[in-house]
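Everyone, carefully examine this protein record:
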Amino acid sequence: MSAPSSERRLLRPRYIRFAADRLWVIDETQPVAVLLEPSSGQIDRIVSWPEIPSPSPALTIASHGDRVWLHYRGTDVLACVKVDGVHHAEYLEGTHLLTAGSSGAWCFRPTQTRDDVARTADEPPLPRPRPRPPLLLAHPDGGTSPINIDGVLVAADFDEQSVRLGVEHAPWSRIYRETPTPTGFVLQQSKSWIHLPLDAGTTRIELDDYPRSQADGAWHTSEYADITYNELHRRKRAIGDGVRWHWGTTDRHGGVLLVKAFRGGSSVPVREIELPEVRAYEGIAHGGQLWLLVRSADENSSTRHLVRLSIDTAESELDAAIDDLDITGYCRAVAPEPPDHASYVRYCVRRLDGRQFSKRMHHVRAEFIGDWPHGRLHISFTHDDYEGLTLVTRLNLYDEQGQRLEDITRYVPTELMEQADTHAYPNRSHAIGGVLYV
């Protein structure tokens, strides 16, 4: 447990996983998970891992059995966490976490590809450097194994049963092209998806060792950023105890969150549930039920809830708000205050105060309100189309650990201009005392 922060920190749920027969609700930036008993939804314990470095809050998570695997973007550290904390950690050798199964955590590093243009159609392919393993398996009880592959691994994806490896391999051919330059015969490799079971235990993969399907065209995976209902999207799907759940928003239902449950391979849902005025972060299936972490569809509301659904009823069985849980004592320690903090604040104010970012904005003022590291730079202004209101943008200069963020004076002027010109503000009804926070 780390030293407590001077400001109370409440849980900000962002990820959910099942491990060790508990629902893990993981914070969006802090190394903290709240473990819930799935039948009652009651808190069982709080687990933290502040010793794992995290230069970025971007986090990849996988779970299997009694373990949760964690990888923060920008690090080469893979942490295996159990209910009593960090069990072990591994060096990733330049790979990143994909998913996990009974064999351990599967980690992948794509091989960089470039055009191979030759003068003749029969010239052999240029050799591709392989300085580090493209696939790594981290074992449940510690240690890693590099996995060698017959071919060049250039893409990877996964589903509930397997890791899908995109491999370029022989036979090959060359096709002549005139544009773009250079002209010549361009290498065309054969492309395949190898379907590697999550429980596989191997140190070398030959092309015909596991089921293989042909891959046509450019490499792509099944992940997309949209939130609409689509049964092809893995991140809006969960499978548990023979029930397959899908969710997403749909215009046909007025923008509500639609959830469907199917048994086995049936295309006819056994249950359809509509959840109005919410959007889903993540979902996980367990024991014939679906847990969804949802937020309000109102962008100005930060409320987050856990919803438990069942095929037995069209109503949610449990709806719990857990974003009021104090996790201050489990957070990372705050860095020392930088000696140039006051000078940096003056610099930001000087660059932004009185500056008209858009012809629609007037009376622009910049002021730092609060104390390091939680104080924020407030930029207040009036807008031609918001008569009678003062609009205020609040900007963080530091992250939660007291580390200075990117210089806001480099990008905020453009953001404020675009926001003003497109009226990308909350509705006037959200104003309090003549002030609208944007």
Observations:
- The first strand starts at residue 13 and ends at 19.
- The helical segments are 341-352, 412-422.
